[in-house]
Automatic annotation (TrEMBL):
It is a multi-pass membrane protein. Keywords: Cell membrane, G-protein coupled receptor, Membrane, Olfaction, Receptor, Sensory transduction, Transducer, Transmembrane, Transmembrane helix. This is Olfactory receptor. The keyword Transmembrane helix applies. Belongs to the G-protein coupled receptor 1 family.
Length: 301
């Protein structure tokens, strides 16, 4: 059904969301390239951040292009296979982001709690294993969820009151017993979603305990500032997702869900690179070095 039935409003929204999508691609891709080419950013924190940016690109790209094309159509339709594919990719990226945010919380805990052993504990091998585990868990969970949900019988109404293939509304359209699909969805939300959130909260509990042991106010403030960006990203991601899926569905709440979904599907992938860059001295310095190097090469030519 899209965001709105008003065609004039849709034409106004098209350039707005196109601009947001292009900024999402440019900022996240730019951050990935910057982290890759600047050796000063070759640390576990920025290693994880580059994969978070890649997730944001894939997550936004699984939904935004289809949504943008729907703005220009008189009737919005999507095939069964395309709907399943869109859900699979979006769910894979969302579940992977949960796991990756948990890995980043652990990284911050080691950096603050055991600074002398940090480079030894967070070795490149462990970082790659954590990323592989995050992507692997997200892939497997999304695959099970998609197969179980789209394997149901669909013979009744085929109207999705959303701007993307939201799994809760897809299952509700089934004319067969959706119990297994709903249980799988519930278990994955508990194990992956809330499990990752619990791990993040525990990590920050230990981080807070470690910071309290630091006697100097200046050092404790610096220690906390390294976590501020990650904490903001976690709050935005989980705050909006929980507000959408943790209350009963009604006709009024469906409209609210669309607005909130726009925020965590469209805006958060754009905001994440800004959250990590605007107040980050290391990224600002890396950007200055890259610009200086590029300027020097141009002058040499």
């Amino acid at each position: 059904m899209g965001l709105s039935d008003d065609k004039e409003l849709q034409l106004l929204l098209f350039p707005v969301f196109l601009g947001i999508y292009l900024m999402t691609l440019i900022w996240n891709l730019g951050l990935i390239i910057l982290i890759r080419i600047d050796s000063h950013l070759h640390t576990p924190m920025y290693f994880f951040l580059s994969f978070l940016s890649f997730i944001d690109i894939c997550y936004s790209s699984s939904i935004s292009p289809r949504m943008l094309s729907d703005f220009l159509k008189d009737e919005n339709t999507i095939s069964f296979i395309a709907c399943a594919t869109q859900h699979f990719v979006a769910s894979w990226m969302a579940l992977t982001e949960c796991c990756l945010l948990a890995a980043m919380a652990y990284d911050r805990y080691i950096a603050i709690g055991s600074p002398l052993q940090y480079s030894m504990i967070m070795a490149p091998g462990l970082c790659w294993k954590m990323v592989a585990a995050a992507y692997g868990s997200g892939f497997l969970s999304s695959l099970i969820q998609t197969v179980s949900s789209f394997h149901l019988d669909y013979c009744g109404p085929n109207i999705i009151h959303h701007f993307f293939c939201d799994i809760a509304q897809i299952i509700a359209l089934s004319c067969s017993n959706p119990f297994i699909g709903q249980m799988i969805l519930f278990l994955e939300a508990i194990i992956v979603g809330f499990g990752s959130l619990l791990f993040i909260l525990l990590s920050y509990g230990f981080i807070a305990s470690s910071i309290l042991k630091i006697s100097l106010l200046k050092h404790s403030a610096k220690a906390f500032s390294t976590c501020a960006s990650h904490l903001a990203a976690v709050t935005l991601f989980y705050g909006t997702a929980l507000s959408v899926y943790m209350h009963p569905s009604t006709s009024h709440s469906m409209k609210q869900n669309k607005v909130l979904s726009v925020f965590y599907v469209i805006f958060i992938p754009m905001l994440n690179p800004l959250i990590y860059s605007l107040r980050n001295k290391e990224i600002k310095e890396a950007l200055k070095r890259v610009i200086k190097r590029a300027t020097y090469l141009l002058q040499q030519e």
